[in-house]
Design a protein that fits this description.
119 residues, Gyrase A, domain 2, 4-stranded antiparallel beta sheet, globular, binds ligand H2B, 4-alpha-hydroxytetrahydrobiopterin dehydratase activity, Putative pterin-4-alpha-carbinolamine dehydratase, Pterin-4-alpha-carb_dehyd, EC 4.2.1.96
């Protein structure tokens, strides 16, 4: 199984398929700590990352933002004192694409390299 965090996003197209139930059940195994949320009928991946303070939360936010810019695929980021909520979905598809799982795995990789509340 290729490491999802090392994969790259494909360009978002409005006619691209959302992940199937089978793909979803397989892909979520690689990002087990992420929650699947459904908001206004749109399926999303969401996870809260804890930090010691706002400065660490902001540094992580900026690192995720840089990865998003590099891949041309962008999250919703809620940056608060001590935590960042990251939400991935494909706007054009109004749902989940493999890109979202790639970027969730990439977000975990960024977090594992960043100072967190756990350290
Ligand atoms: C023009 C630009 O590349 C597109 O609008 C991209 C930008 N980033 C994106 N990010 C996400 N999450 N979904 C999209 O559909 C999307 N589209």
């Amino acid at each position: 199984m290729t490491d999802l965090s090392q994969a790259h996003c494909e360009a978002c197209r409005t006619d691209a398929p959302r992940v199937s139930e089978t793909e979803l059940s397989e892909l979520i195994k690689q990002i087990p700590d992420w929650n699947i949320e459904i908001r206004n009928g749109v399926m999303q991946l969401e996870k809260i990352f804890p930090f010691k303070n706002f400065a660490q939360a902001l540094a992580f936010t900026n690192a995720v933002a840089a990865a998003a810019e590099a891949e041309g695929h962008h999250p919703a980021l809620l940056t608060e004192w001590g935590r960042v909520t990251v939400t991935w979905w494909s706007h054009k598809l109004k749902g989940l694409h493999r890109n979202d799982f790639i970027m969730a795995a990439r977000t975990d990789a960024i977090a594992s390299a960043a100072p967190t509340a756990a350290q």
